[in-house]
Each structure stands twice: as C-alpha cells, then as structure tokens.
Amino acid sequence: MFTRLFTHELRVNAKQNLTAIGLSVLVAALALAIVMLRWPLISTMSATVVTLAAFACPAAVLVISLQNFWRTMYGDRGYFTMALPTRGRNVFLAKTIHGYLAFMVAVTVALVLQLALWWAQAYLNGVDVGARMDQFATILSNIDPVVLAIAVASVPIMGFTYLFPLAAIMSIGAGPRWNHLGFGAPVVGYMIYYVTGQVFGVLGFLLPGGVDITTGRFTWEWSVPSLIDAIVTGGQPKIIGFGAIVLQLLLSAVLTCWGVRAVEKHTALR
Questions:
Q1: What's the gap between Cα 48 and its chain centre?
Q2: What's the domain range around 254?
Q3: Which of 207, 199, 201, 197 is nearest to 255 (CA)?
Q4: Do 256 and 162 share a structural domain?
Q5: Rounded CA gap, 86 and 106, in Å?
Q6: In total, how many domains does the chain have?
Q7: How would you list the strands of the sheet with 239-241, edge to edge?
Q8: Which parts of the chain are beta strand (E)?
Q9: How far is 41 from 48, CA to CA, in rounded Å?
Q10: pTM (two decimals)
C-alpha cells in the first residue's frame, strides 16, 4: 500500500514541483545570460537574481510539499485520505518521503545553478577554471574524511529536519486537544519547534566532537573552551562542534515519531 500511495504522490504533485523548479531554472538562466553580456550594473544585479532563484527553488518545493500535506490530510481532501484502508504511518511516510525527495532534487538544482554562476564569473574574470577546480580538489583531499562525510551528510539531514518535523507538527496540531485552533495550532507548534531548535543548538556545544579549523581534522575535543577563549580574546574559535547537528536530528526524529503516532491515534486513517 505504501508503494501505491507514494506513486500517487509522485503523479499528483509532479506538475507543481516541476513548475516551481522549472521557473527557478528559467529565471536563473535568463539572469545568467545577462551576466555573460557584461552590462555594467545590470550584470551585477543579474548575478544576485541567479542566487535568489537558486535559493527560491528548494524553498518553493518545501512550501508546496507542506501545503499539499495540510490540504490532503486536514483540509477538504482529508475526508478521502481518512477513508483509505491503510495505516496512518503509510500515508504520513508516503507524503513526507515524497516531499523530502522533491526537496533534495530542488537543493541539487540550486547547487548546480550556483556552480554555473561561479563558472560564469570565473570565465568573465579570466580565471582558469580548470586550475581553480584542481585547487578545490586539493583542498578537499586535505580535509579529514570524517569531516567531509559529516559536511556532505549535513545537506540531506537539513532536508529531514525541515520537512518531517513540520509535517509532524501539523499532525500533532490536528489532534483533538489542539484542532480547535485550526491552522493556528501548527503555527504555534512551529514557533515552539524553532525556539527548541535554538536551545538545542546551544546545548550542542556541550557535546564532544567537531572539526579543528586550524588543521581541518576531526577531533573529540570539547568546543566550549575554544568558544570561551575566542570570546575573551576576540578571535575565532578553534573547534567547531557538530553537536548541534546531532541534537537537531534527534529532535526531528522524536517529532516525526510523535507525528506518526498522532496520525494513527487521533485521525484514524483506516
């Protein structure tokens, strides 16, 4: 049943997602063409437009996914969803996993657009792109593989901590205890989630594990002494901790499980 639900999500939402991504690419391509024309001021402004279009691409897909989640789960179409002969977790996961994958595709497109802008600016400035890529590859080869793996993993983790918790908050807010607030319930939930995330970000400094920016190597050193020293001396912290990523991922996982439980226990999608 999950496969059928996921396929349905792909088919129903493909037009909206492809339209959002396509418009972003079109705007960025037109702006990039103007950048290549080297028009004073206008080309500089067009470079900014490329960056804005790149950022707008995943943001638009995220909004579309959350909007569709709310409309099909708790809006007018929710009556049909509630009549489906399947467990609530199948419905929740089909919608969120689809939205997550669409978001990651949009993030990939955004990165490609930014890379295209970087190449265009390097070409216009007479920079040897091949040599610059070799320098970049050399830098990557000098980075600790653990640090590089965490940096790469942070991108899909970011997508998970955006979409899944927000969908879960909608499901929790639609429960009998909060549904009298309407859409105000998830709005309040978002604010609580944001504040909690900031607190977890601070608490993340208390966990060991991070990157030593002087060597680029992973270390299990505590980042708090480095941070305090940087504040006292006015310099830069030596250790950048990864604890915030771990705690944010944990918070998102807990909220997702709570959201699945809310769907199955309080909306009776059977």
A1: 21
A2: 143-270
A3: 197
A4: yes
A5: 30
A6: 2
A7: 217-219, 210-212, 239-241
A8: 210-212, 217-219, 239-241
A9: 11
A10: 0.84
> Does residue 1 sit in the same domain as residue 67?
yes
- Of 172, 17, 171, the residue nearest 101 (C-alpha): 17
Residues 3 and 49 in one domain: yes
Closest by alpha carbon to 114, among 53, 157, 156?
A: 53
Residue 270: predicted pLDDT: 40
Cβ proximity of 258 and 166 under 8 Å:
no
Does residue 127 sit in the same domain as residue 214? no
Pick the last residue of a domain from 79, 113, 137.
137
Task: Select from 137, 157, 188 the last residue of a domain.
Answer: 137
- The verdict on 164 and 124 lying in the same domain is no
Average pLDDT over every residue of 170-195: 82
CA angle 216–150–223, rounded 5-degree value: 55
In this structure, the answer to whether residues 228 and 133 fall within a common structural domain is: no
Lowest mean pLDDT among 27-31, 106-110, 184-188, 222-226: 222-226
The two tokens of residue 6 are: 């996921």
SS3 letters across 42-73: HHHHHHHHHHHHHHHHHHHHHHHHHHHHHHHH
151 CB contacts (<8 Å, ≥6 apart)?
none
Compute the C-alpha angle 170/11/165, nearest 5°.
20
